[in-house]
Amino acid sequence: MRDLVIAMTGASGAAYCLRLLEVLVAAGRTVHLTISPAATQVLRHELDLQVDLNAFDPQQLLPADGQVSSDSKLKLLKPDGGGGYAASSIFSDSEVFTGKIVYHHYRDYSSGIASGSFLTGGMVICPCSMGTLASIATGQSQNLIHRAADVHLKERRKLVVVPRETPLSVIALDNMKRLAEAGATILPAMPGFYHSPKSIHDLIDFVVARICDQLGVQNELIQRWGADSSRG
Length: 232
Ligand SMILES: Cc1cc2nc3c(=O)[nH]c(=O)nc-3n(C[C@H](O)[C@H](O)[C@H](O)COP(=O)(O)O)c2cc1C
Description:
The structure is a single chain. With 232 residues, the chain is of the alpha/beta class. It has one domain: 3-Layer(aba) Sandwich (Rossmann fold). It is built from six helices and eight strands; from the N terminus they run βαβαββββααβαβα. The chain has helices at 14-26, 37-47, 130-137, 144-154, 170-181, 200-215; strands at residues 4-8, 30-35, 77-79, 85-87, 100-103, 123-128, 159-163, 185-186. The strands form two sheets. A six-stranded parallel sheet has the order 5-2-1-6-7-8, with helices on both faces. Strand 3 (77-79) and strand 4 (85-87) form a beta hairpin. The longest helix has 16 residues, at 200-215. The radius of gyration is 17 Å and the shape is globular. The relative contact order is 0.18. The site of flavin mononucleotide has 16 residues, from helix 2 and helix 3. Residues 9-12, 36, 38-39, 41-42, 45, 129-132, 164-165 line the site of flavin mononucleotide.
């Protein structure tokens, strides 16, 4: 299984990315994570998390008090004792430490993920701001996130872009069209409601499940349409 690249940018919906990280690590994947400065503002505003990009530790993605609320599915990351981070398996009741997170500063162009020779199984930008969308669509490579996305496009590897904005300007729509034509998958943070969501977590899981499907990561996060015989 090849490593995956996950970039978090400054659009609303940081919780999508945290859940995605959790699911991928629980699925045993090594995730190369990079975060934009604007994403730290969103993390602070939406989830009350203080993330220091110059001294990053995945534990900063845990709730401030270190406690996970009992009704939360966002059980997130725990140190694995070996310098890595892992999540308890969401696929069984037992604690299974599996994948890990490798952090890359958004300005570190010497990072492996800045090069096409570093093989990956794909990249996801989640959530993706309109600013990052525009930068990638115009090939600007102004930070590691843009550069890694550019690499995935040029190498014809999977690039999943999860934009979040509403309404959408013609500029944003044009940029999405351009990226789709270049080979990216545009997967808007648009949860469906046909799986009978009971909570925000169910809505988050809807989007994360679709991202995992794109990456070929097996998951049972949501009831799949057609899988329930009562629906015919
Ligand atoms: C709390 C918060 C929410 C934001 N939500 C969005 C959003 O949903 N979509 C978007 O395109 N920009 C949003 N922004 C603005 C972006 O963060 C801003 O355009 C930034 O320059 C994006 O930089 P980045 O792409 O490098 O992360 C938000 C900013 C903040 C602080």
